[in-house]
Write a sequence for this structure.
């Protein structure tokens, strides 16, 4: 029995790399698609926001003097590429999926329209939100919080390369301490880098809980949706 009936899953572009230095690892994206397919069979309504860091990171160009707006726009296009790849992987598992973009690319996906998005979810289709918020200077974490609130998701689930939120990077610090539960304010006050401040504030102000978990632990997504305590809960 699922505790949550409508969720939003945030996938970073880097998570789709797998062992690669660039692009998409088919094994990872197919694994994600299979886990989502299991949720849809349980009538869980799934929406997804995907990043683009595996293909392009605008901030890297900005550091070299490139225009920030142009860099962010190129990053938005990278998220569309990831969204289309994930849609294809889902369709290959017999899951109906739609890509909705915050910027208009009519030839490849739909424009984001809130009521249409909710209708897709009600019909059992998986929704993949691309192009962030459609605006420069905002991250895909902020887009995830915004879209989750707009479509009335009950929880935002962030998939990462570690099994929760730590007080420092566990890959660099062997003494890093993991939080099982943490508040929005603690994340902001401790300046923890799990998500950007804007996205945390949006969730806090709208009472949207966040779970951060390890994408690479098979079955954990399903356990979270069933109400099991996995990773770190932010509330």
């Amino acid at each position: 029995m699922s505790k949550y009936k409508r969720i939003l899953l945030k996938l970073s572009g880097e998570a789709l790399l797998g062992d690669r230095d660039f692009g998409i690892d088919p094994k990872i994206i197919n694994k994600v698609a299979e886990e989502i397919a299991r949720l849809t069979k349980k009538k869980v309504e799934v929406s997804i926001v995907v990043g683009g860091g595996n293909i392009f990171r605008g901030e890297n160009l900005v550091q070299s003097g490139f225009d920030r707006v142009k860099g962010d726009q190129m990053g938005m296009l990278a998220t569309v590429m990831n969204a289309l790849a994930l849609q294809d992987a889902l369709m290959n598992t017999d899951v109906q999926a739609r890509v909705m973009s915050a910027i208009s690319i009519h030839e490849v996906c739909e424009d984001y329209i809130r009521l249409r998005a909710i209708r897709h979810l009600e019909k059992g289709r998986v929704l993949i939100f691309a192009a962030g918020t459609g605006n420069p200077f905002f991250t895909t974490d902020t887009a995830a919080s915004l879209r989750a609130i707009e479509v009335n998701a009950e929880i935002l689930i962030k998939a990462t390369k570690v099994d929760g939120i730590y007080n420092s990077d566990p890959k660099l610090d062997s003494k890093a301490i993991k939080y099982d539960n943490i508040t929005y304010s603690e994340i902001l006050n401790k300046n923890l880098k799990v998500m950007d401040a804007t996205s945390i504030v949006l969730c806090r102000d709208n009472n949207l809980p966040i779970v951060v978990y390890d994408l690479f632990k098979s079955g954990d997504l399903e356990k979270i949706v069933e109400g099991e305590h996995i990773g770190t809960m932010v509330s």
Observations:
- The CA atoms of residues 2 and 226 lie 4 Å apart.
- The chain has one domain: 6-234.
